[in-house]
Design brief:
The protein is of the alpha+beta class and 183 residues long. Helices cover 16% and strands 49% of the residues. Strands 3, 5, 6, 8, 9, 10, 11, 12 and 13 form a nine-stranded mixed sheet that branches. Strands 1-4-7-2 form a four-stranded mixed sheet, with no helix packed on it.
Length: 183
């Protein structure tokens, strides 16, 4: 009897895995003309920065990261939901879920002057949910742009502390295949 139960559970698990594979959320970079919806990439403020403001301690190497606007297209067989972005593995969810039907596109851009990080940008990923509510990360490959503006040091004097920021400007060059997030 235990063998029959194990076989049924394995068959159900295999069937669920097949369904998941049919619904993997594939996206690609696309051209401006293909994009229909616009969504802002959320800004985050590193907690260390606000802590420095209240404790009067010196904070160095705070990075203001700017990602050039880019367009993506859903090339999956079904709809996908854009849930947020990960800056150096730190998830920031969009205010609203962005539902992209099959072959639909959207324009992603940063709201405001940039995103504040406590270290240089090493990874930038989109968080996407498929129609079965599985969550995936899609890595975005990037390169610096605007050579004259890279690694510009700015300082702001505030009472007895100085906060240093380095501006980094990035262009998304390609997108990886989605990776399932096990939760």
């Amino acid at each position: 009897m235990a063998g029959v139960s194990w076989t049924i559970r394995k068959a159900d698990k295999d069937k669920n895995e097949e369904e998941r594979k049919k619904n993997i959320p594939y996206i690609r970079l696309c051209q401006k003309e293909e994009a229909l919806v616009a969504e802002k990439i959320p800004m985050i403020t590193c907690s260390d920065v606000s802590a420095a403001d209240s404790s009067n301690k010196l904070v160095e190497n705070i990075f203001c990261v700017n990602v050039k606007p880019f367009y993506i297209k859903n090339i999956s067989d079904g709809l996908i939901i854009l849930r947020g972005v990960c800056w150096n593995n730190r998830l920031v969810e969009f205010k609203n879920k962005i539902v992209l039907e099959k072959n639909a596109s959207c324009f992603l851009f940063q709201d405001g002057a940039g995103t504040i990080l406590k270290e240089k940008l090493v990874s930038f990923e989109l968080v996407i949910i498929d129609s079965l509510e599985n969550k995936y990360k899609v890595g975005c490959f990037f390169e610096k742009y605007e050579q004259g503006l890279n690694d510009r040091i700015m300082s702001a004097q505030q009472k007895d502390k100085t906060i240093y920021q380095t501006d980094n400007f990035f262009n998304i060059t390609s997108i990886s295949l989605p990776k399932l997030i096990k939760e």
